[in-house]
Amino acid sequence: MPPTINAAGGVQLSDLGSYQHAVRLVLTNDVITAARPRQGALEQVLRWADPISKDLRELLGYTLIATTRQVRLIRRLDGLDPTQTTIFAAKSGRPV
């Protein structure tokens, strides 16, 4: 049986909505700065940077880079299954 990962484990129930909103901001924006995607978003994400970083690393293998000027999520690239023998082809018919 795989180990259970307790996402948002250290977040108080009363703060869970704020934490979840910060996670949605990280997952839907490639870069978060003081002005992008909107004023105040950077501060909200930075408040939860440590638990978000831990959860995304454990659950998805992502890396969260958070500085005082920006937050960026580095997604893990999916690898192809080496046991598959099918060659992917573009619409032009050339292998990818």
Task: Please explain how this structure is put together.
It contains three helices and three strands. With 96 residues, it is of the alpha+beta class. Strands 1-3-2 form a three-stranded antiparallel beta sheet. A hairpin with a 3-residue loop joins β2 and β3. The radius of gyration is 18 Å and the shape is flat.
Q: Extract low-pLDDT stretches.
A: none
- Spatial strand sequence of the major β-sheet: 1-3-2
Helices and strands, in order, run as HEHHEE
Shape: flat
What is the count of DSSP helices, taking H or I runs of 4+ residues? 3
Strand content: 5-15%
CA-to-CA gap between the ends? 37 Å
Mean pLDDT: 86
Sheet/helix structural class: alpha+beta
The helical percent reads 25-40%
Q: What is the strand tally?
A: 3
User: What profile does the largest beta sheet have?
Assistant: 3 strands, antiparallel
Computed Rg: 18 Å
Topology diagram in text:
Layout: H1 16-28, E1 31-33, H2 41-47, H3 49-60, E2 63-66, E3 70-74
Antiparallel strand pairs: 1-3, 2-3
